[in-house]
């Protein structure tokens, strides 16, 4: 699931393609027509679908459609790779312990939108990213993998975001692997 540039989506596709992760990205769902993630899927040859949140009367109806889209292709895991919408029980309960999120801070610090700006404004010297299982409370849920990113004195939002993204691309495939192992979908030897 992606709303924007889709660099985490692409990192997952590459991890599957180069054998780092014994998995396949069966489907990308985007909510913003023509977004970077959609363009990357077209380029990479990954099936994609558009579920535009503006065309649904409620979050629940959107999430029902998302769950159905994933059930249609029988996925084992769903990754919110930059899905900029709050999800509801409709999706979370359709994929218990199988729905992952990536967030650009060391949770539980800096939940919610603009986590990178929050870290800069707080003046902390260390931030990072977190891959976790999704629960109904936003940016909560059991942590799977975290990576720390030091903040330099002269960092801007862009320079810091770039280094956080680099770490996200590393930990998202690891988190998928870990979640799959916990569910017994992969043995520890597989990856
Ligand atoms: C990432 O920073 C992720 O942590 C946040 O949204 C961003 C998505 O980036 N939830 P991209 O679309 O994968 O490039």
List the topology elements.
Blueprint: H1 7-17, E1 28-30, H2 36-44, E2 48-50, H3 59-72, E3 78-80, H4 89-92, E4 99-103, H5 115-122, E5 126-133, E6 143-150, H6 157-182
Parallel strand pairs: 1-2, 3-4
Antiparallel strand pairs: 4-5, 5-6
Helix pairs in contact: 1-2, 1-6
5-O-phosphono-beta-D-ribofuranosylamine binds next to helix 1, strand 4 and helix 6.
Broad CATH class: Alpha Beta
Order of helices and strands: HEHEHEHEHEEH
**Number of spatially distinct domains:** 1
CATH structural fold name: Rossmann fold
- Which secondary-structure class do the elements indicate? alpha/beta
Portion of residues within helices: 25-40%
Radius of gyration: 16 Å
Strand line-up in the sheet with most strands: 3-4-5-6
What does this structure look like?
The protein starts with 6 loop residues before the first helix and ends in a 9-residue tail after the last helix. The chain is of the alpha/beta class. It has a single domain, classed as 3-Layer(aba) Sandwich (Rossmann fold), CATH 3.40.50. The protein has 6 helices and 6 strands; from the N terminus they run αβαβαβαβαββα. The strands form 2 sheets. A 4-stranded mixed sheet has the order 3-4-5-6. A two-stranded parallel sheet has the order 1-2. β1, α2 and β2 form a beta-alpha-beta unit. The longest helix has 26 residues. The structure holds 5-O-phosphono-beta-D-ribofuranosylamine. The site of 5-O-phosphono-beta-D-ribofuranosylamine (GRF) has 15 residues, from α1, β4 and α6.
């Amino acid at each position: 699931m992606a709303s924007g540039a889709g660099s985490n989506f692409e990192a997952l596709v590459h991890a599957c393609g180069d054998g780092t992760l014994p998995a396949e990205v069966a489907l990308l769902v985007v909510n913003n027509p023509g977004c970077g993630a959609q363009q990357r899927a077209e380029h990479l040859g990954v099936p994609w679908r558009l579920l535009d949140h503006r065309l649904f009367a409620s979050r629940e109806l959107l999430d029902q459609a998302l769950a159905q889209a994933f059930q249609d292709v029988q996925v084992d895991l769903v990754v919110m790779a930059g899905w900029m919408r709050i999800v509801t029980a409709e999706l979370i309960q359709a994929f218990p312990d199988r729905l992952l999120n990536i967030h650009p801070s060391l949770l539980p610090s800096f939940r919610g939108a603009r986590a990178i700006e929050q870290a800069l404004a707080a003046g902390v010297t260390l931030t990072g990213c977190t891959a976790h299982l999704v629960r109904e409370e936003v940016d909560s849920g059991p942590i799977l993998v975290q990576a720390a990113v030091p903040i330099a004195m002269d960092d801007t939002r862009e320079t810091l975001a770039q280094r956080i993204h680099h770490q996200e691309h590393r930990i998202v495939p690891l988190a998928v692997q870990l979640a799959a192992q916990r569910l017994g979908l992969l043995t520890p030897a597989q990856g």
